[in-house]
Amino acid sequence: MKKHHSSRPPQPPKWIEKFLTWLCDPYLVEGILGDLYEKYETRIEEGNHVKARFRYVLEAIGFARPFTWKKKLFSFPLIFQRAMLSNYLKVAIRSLYRYKGHSITNILGLTVGITGCLLIGLFVMDEWKFDTSHPDADQLYRVYDEVSRNSGISHVALTPPMFGPTMKADYPEVEESLQMMNVYGKKLFEVGDKQYLENKGIYVEPQMFDFFDLKVLEGDVSTALLEPNALILTETMKEKYFPEGEALGKTIKIDGKDAKITAIIADPGSHFHLNFDYLLSFETVKRLIQPERMQSWVWQQFYTYIKLTPDADPVALAAKFPAFAERYAYEYTQEYGFTYTPQIQSVKDIHLNSSDFTWDIAERGNGTYVMGLSIIGIFLLVIACINFVNLSTARAERRAKEVGVRKVAGAIRGQIVFQFLGESILLSLISTILAVGLTMGLIPVLNQFTGKEMVFSFIEQPGLLLAILTMTIIVGVFAGVYPALFISRFKPVRVLKGSKMPGNVFDIFFRKGLVIIQFSLSILLIIATIIIYNQVTFLNNKDLGFDKEYVLTFPMKGKVDQAPEQAKSEFLKLPGVISGTFGYGFPGDIVAGDNIILAKNDQRMSSNVFIIEHDYIKTMGMEIIAGRDFSRDFSTDENEAFIINETAVREMGFESSEAALGTELHWPMWNHNQELKKGRIIGVVKDFHYKSLHEEVAMAVLHIYPSAAWKMALRVNSTNLSETMKGVEEVWDSYQTGYPLDYQFIDSSFDQMYKAEEKLSTLLGIFTLLSIFVACLGLLGLVAFAAEKRTREIGIRKVLGASVLNIIALITRDFLVLILVSIVIGTPLAWYFMSDWLANFPYTFELNIWIFISAGLGIVLIAILTVGFQAVKAAVADPVESLRYE
């Protein structure tokens, strides 16, 4: 038998004894260490000194036991057994039960706070998931253009056709490029007797499947997109047209032309920024475009993606793009009145960081709104935690004797801290369990409101349980650590003598500061909600420069497209149709971007061009402010006349609208030879908003060019609308176009533009109300405790003649001062943040002081009602009972 080099038992590190002493009674610590010394003397005698020392340390801190798992599967670690966790749990439960009002207030507040935080957290995580599942997501980037025009700088999701191939050829960092183009408008799909209009299609190159995580169900995608008119269907589309049979290899007529089905893929996931039902080969669209146009550096019509090599630096690559644009594009684009600089963005950023992009087909969220909701969720939870801290410290005097008795019995501060932290965590756990139940019930409602498919399941999301447990502990510790430290420092002699608790200045100001923080956050949220609501109302009600009500538009097909004047006259015979027109470019719809040439100096200017006919301005309810409208009385109007908007007057350099009249303009006609249409300005129309109010009105030129018109618009009477629509459909059917009537009202198109702001306003309003509720819940508890603490004083004051109003003023005065301080702090913060938010809109309502005053008065009124309820209750109490208190 080996002998060890010393007979002295292994000594534990000093931190072990300090930890045990902090957690347990010193005599208990001595007993634990003594037991361990005796237990390991045999092992020491055997010479295994290092192993004995290691084992000793583990057992001392409670992470090892002197038995095997075969003898006992589970046991509390030694130190936690000795610390009597079960006893702490019993005391915690008894305390929660004894102070039921205090416990219910805290549990309710924390439950609401945690529920709000969970719901917002699920929404935010769902937004962050977009495009994270692609195999090479970190290497995938979308190219977009930062375009500089005479009207300013804009971000355009579309790029010229030369971008992808040239970048791949010029930069070794670019491993592969991908181009795609949107299938604009709805296409008629026909299989047998089935006819449907489909509007979610994209022309794509074959390497689409090398870029993105798309599951192939049938077919070979490496060859599926090589031929013209090759078609890939999603699983949903396959079931729609071929529910019982094979689809692969069969044909579908798309607008009368055969397309061969070459593959079937699973529906794109809900977290993919591209939402489509079918894919057509890029070769299909290339056959429709002139070859020289595919060599253009000016025509922006394609979405371009690049895959970088694993070692590529995207920042360094982007720094090369200004020179790239200058080398290839500037000589062409400057002639057309604009320049651009290519930029790249990670595909993972497209969803949340493209809200200001024009001509984008991505499923877009808004990073600013997501961040704002995240902050609100944190605010809500912080307000609930502040309630806990305030109520616990305010009620500390009630538990002072309990702490004094414990200390006299031998408890040290560490044990008391552990006890109160345990109570806090237990309360947090109860609140979390209730919050999880509420969240499960509210998730379907949130999904319906947001249009998402969020799931709250511990089975499908195993990490969710760990996250919630972690949050429970953090909330419990955050809410309970200060009250635990505050209560544990009470002196037993002073407490047991019945002396009044010492009023530490820091503690008093700390509690008041927490109340101020609560209501500062509340006033901030109230002001934010009012401003967002006013901005959404402004966007929906602003004068757009035309009358958007009761105007329906629809694509012209078949015989209607071949004879639009005749079709329009037939529609105008209906009693409910007031006027009609047709053209290319209606508000809320696709508008052509093109160039106009000022003949006097041959200057090309980038403009939005509206192809219209004589009755367009009348039908749309626009206002001519100088000159005249197009008229059939002037035979030259079709070929030699232009009308411009007010913005065009300014950008062309004219001092007034009248000064622009008679100016000669040229327009490169949309034909093979790009012949010039030469004419003069005959009128100026008041600026009208043809895009979202997120964008400023740009230069617009209106003229007649019948061959490019593709949509018709009818202004209808609001009375008997259903009869009118029935008549419109009958006229449409009489033309036997082969297409169903696909109409849309212009006002509904504009309403859709502001859905994001409307949803944000609603969500913010709901969570603001919850925040105010939680804050007032805490205030109610504090006032109730303050009234209870001053019960004798109130009784004496009433006996001496104090009125009910005097008593109410006595109780409410201090709290109202804190609310006023909160308003002073929260108001400028709200003004700063919301002014920054409004700066994202080119058109905003007038931000005036009454918004802030009304919000302040609102929070004061809420506080008065909250405080007044308890104050009145205390003021009308029987003074005899009050004097018997304690």
How does this model look, in words?
- The structure is a single chain.
- With 886 residues, this protein is of the alpha+beta class.
- The strands form 3 sheets. Strands 1, 2, 3, 4, 5, 6, 7, 8, 9, 10, 11, 12, 13 and 14 form a 14-stranded mixed β-sheet that branches.
- β1 and β2 (152-156) form a beta hairpin.
- α6 (100-128) runs antiparallel to α15.
- It starts with 13 loop residues before the first helix and ends with a helix.
Can you tag this structure with a few keywords?
single chain; 14-stranded mixed beta sheet; 33 helices; elongated; disordered N terminus
**Percentage of residues assigned to helices:** 40-55%
- The number of E-state strands comes to 25
Low-confidence stretches: 1-10, 23-32, 60-84
Provide the gyration radius in Å. 37 Å
Inertia-based shape: elongated
What fraction strand? 15-25%
- From the N-terminal CA to the C-terminal CA, the straight-line distance is 72 Å
Mean of all residue-level pLDDT scores: 83
Number of continuous helical runs: 33
**Structural class by secondary-structure content:** alpha+beta
Question: What's the short story on this structure?
Answer:
With about 900 residues, the chain is α+β, with helices and mostly antiparallel strands. It contains 33 helices and 25 strands. The strands form three sheets. Strands 1, 2, 3, 4, 5, 6, 7, 8, 9, 10, 11, 12, 13 and 14 form a 14-stranded mixed sheet that branches. It has a six-stranded mixed beta barrel with strand order 17-18-23-20-22-21.
